[in-house]
Amino acid sequence: MTKSTIPHPPRRVPLIGDVLGMNREIPNQNTLVRFKELGPIYRRTILGTDLTFVGSAELAAQVFDDSKWEKHVGRPLEQLRPLVEDGLFTAYNWESNWSKAHEVLVPGFTKDAMVSYHGTMVEVIDELCKDIESRSGEFIPAVDEMGKLTLEVIGQCGFGYSFDSFGGSEHPFVTAMSRALTYAQDSAIPLPFIGKWLRRKEEQQNEIDRRLLAETVDEVIATRQQSGERRSDLLDRMLHPEAAGEGLDAKNIRNQVLTFLVAGHETSVNALGFALHFIAQNPEIAARMRAEADAVIGTGTAQYEDVPRLRYTRQVVNEALRLWPTAPGFFRAAKQDTEVGGHKFSAGEWVFVLLLAVQRDLAWGPDADQFNPDRFSPENNRGRSSELFKPFGTGIRSCIGRQFALHEMTLALATLLQRFDIAPEPGYTLEVEETLTLRPKNLRLQFTPAERR
Ligand code: HEM
């Protein structure tokens, strides 16, 4: 079988290619639907560029094989390069700064490091609860509210910097970041002719956003340098590397700080949003989480060791990340001539693995589209193949912040459940919007102090 046999959407337009049936607003959800029509692998060819999508566990397993495939910095990630250049997330595999930074920063995510961040996470979650309590009974925009939490947590734990998120209006960094990600996503699909001209205004806005993001990062770094303070955090590790010669240059430190502010914030906030949506919609799930939090944490403050014992809460987090992976997929490139599902790929060719489809593979059962945290119970976890659940990516370039995110989200949800009854807005049905990530659109929830406290 040759690569030309890979299915493509119907009605190919001469010269331009497979432009019909594209959806620029929700491209990932559109791709999910296409798999149902075209099978687990298909290709759009637009203006000569091939975009190949993989959407089943069986084919994903082939592409996750690190001996044949590796991370690819795809178009949307390339669009972020003017902003974060060779930061960990967007670095090309061959860039020496990737391995340098990986070595310097991995110790910032060990168990000891996580223990050191725990107290700050507890404090920020407490501030979040106070903020929510001051608006008790109102329907509040849940994603914006969780954004205050995740920005403060990464700002304070990673860089000893507070964005004063609970002080007043949203920090301009958040708006600029969200727009920059949407801009990157929009650039993922090549635009025929007139598109470039239509995007002039967005390009200008993107310039402004990039400047603001860069200025914010400079302020975060300058604040630390001026104070001369030493802390056990990510910034300290970069500014004062343990071994001589291991250091990152100033430009790369800047790229890493911005990378962490974006990567450490955007995906976690949206995952919390999805989890809260399902918790609000399912009172029996909320009741189980609350009973667990009461049993594990009791009436005091959550300790570090409590978090791994919040097993059901973690199942809820996992299930939210399965059904709506906030990083909806990632790119993989062939390291050698190889095959996927019998289709030939030459070295350097790439595919986009849509987790949104892979994590709903029928191997999860006929109800794969339903939210059910019991899928992740210890007995159901036994024997499941790992490619069915990859919300944090795969291989050496998978998420460095995985434990950080899981600890933060589990702790935050358990604390919120202990303190509040959470109700959905009447009539709300989940709609998912896409920047580079997925997020619940217009999700507003009502938090009322839990009656028994
Ligand atoms: C629910 C939360 C999160 C999700 C779903 C998530 C998902 C991912 C995924 C899928 C990748 C691999 C992307 C690729 O292969 O192109 C990745 C990489 C990365 N993530 Fe996360 N992430 C989350 C939270 C975090 C947090 C909290 C941090 C930082 C504190 C972080 C920092 C990074 C970095 C720096 C990379 C690039 C790693 C490398 O290539 O060396 N992420 N993440």
Automatic annotation (TrEMBL):
Pfam families, alphabetized: p450
InterPro entries recorded: CYP46A1, Cyt_P450, Cyt_P450_CS, Cyt_P450_E_grp-I, Cyt_P450_sf
Highest taxon of source: Bacteria
This protein's record includes keyword DNA-binding: no
Alphabetical keyword list: Heme, Iron, Metal-binding, Monooxygenase, Oxidoreductase
Keyword Repeat: no
Protein family (similarity comment): Belongs to the cytochrome P450 family.
Xref: PANTHER family: CYP46A1 PROTEIN-RELATED (PTHR24293:SF0), CYTOCHROME P450 FAMILY 46 SUBFAMILY A (PTHR24293)
Designated name of the protein: Cytochrome P450
Organism taxonomic ancestry: Bacteria, Bacillati, Actinomycetota, Actinomycetes, Mycobacteriales
